[in-house]
Design a protein that fits this description.
Layout: H1 2-36, H2 47-54, H3 58-70, E1 75-77, E2 80-82, H4 88-110, H5 115-133, H6 137-152, H7 158-170, H8 172-178, H9 182-200, H10 204-229
Antiparallel strand pairs: 1-2
Helix pairs in contact: 1-3, 2-3, 4-7, 4-10, 5-6, 5-9, 6-9, 8-10, 9-10
Domain HTH gntR-type: 26-82
Protein name: GntR family transcriptional regulator
Pfam families: FCD (PF07729), GntR (PF00392)
Length: 230
């Protein structure tokens, strides 16, 4: 009797592992595309297209996309999945959460940074600088996301880490608008440099202050640009 129970338990466990691995791969890839701005505000994500791309059935794709829906990255429609359209109120709330969490998290991560983190942050800043010089908003967005992921990786609290990543990713339409503006690109680059300096000096107080100023500036620039479009 004992051997039969063990045999029954083993089969679904092995199947679930394979399914989860493929779903996770698709989830990470689609989320990365959303972070980079590869998916437009009105562009539809279709499960069968992604299934063809990954040469798999639609089931793991649906699971990955539904996870993104649950986390607020996407909205399901009768004709695929799209990015949510955030209102000004939504944007204010996202920035409020960021102001409450990111400065403290970045300051706390300062002591956990290593030489490897330092090298990555320096490299990414140089990439951002080249993107700015070339007026390449897409490359600057990618550098912005990568820079955040490096210092965020040093945050010891995994739940805090994931919460910050999720809320900053939800503000993709903010990055798409602000970092397409040349004057805002300079502000973002200067903010990244100040953060880099604080991280390299292991100055938690400076990092906390700089991060708060960085977030406040991003919020202000977004609404200035939105008002200019109306």
């Amino acid at each position: 009797m004992t051997m039969q129970v063990a045999k029954v338990a083993k089969t679904p466990s092995r199947t679930e592992l394979k399914q989860t691995t493929l779903t996770e791969t698709i989830y990470q890839e689609v989320r990365a595309r959303l972070q980079r701005g590869d998916v437009g505000a009105n562009e539809r994500i279709l499960d069968y297209e992604i299934a063809n791309e990954f040469d798999c059935t639609r089931m793991p794709v649906r699971q990955a996309l539904l996870r993104l829906v649950n986390e607020g990255y996407l909205v399901g429609t009768t004709r695929g999945f799209v990015m949510p359209m955030l209102t000004n109120g939504d944007i204010h709330e996202i920035f409020e959460v960021r102001r409450l969490l990111e400065p403290s998290a970045a300051a706390g991560a300062t002591a956990a940074l290593t030489d490897k983190h330092d090298a990555a942050l320096k490299r990414i800043y140089q990439n951002a600088r080249r993107a700015y010089e070339k007026h390449d908003g897409a490359a600057l967005i990618a550098a912005n996301v990568e820079f955040r992921d490096v210092w965020l990786g040093a945050v010891q609290n995994r739940r805090l880490q994931e919460t910050i990543r999720r809320f900053t990713d939800h503000a993709q339409q903010v990055r798409s608008l602000t970092l397409a503006d040349s004057s805002t690109q300079k502000i973002a680059l200067d903010g990244m440099y100040d953060l880099l300096s604080g991280f390299l000096e292991r100055d938690a107080k400076r990092v906390r202050t700089t991060m708060l100023e960085f977030i406040l500036s991003a919020e202000q620039r977004y609404f200035v640009l939105v008002d200019g479009q109306e």
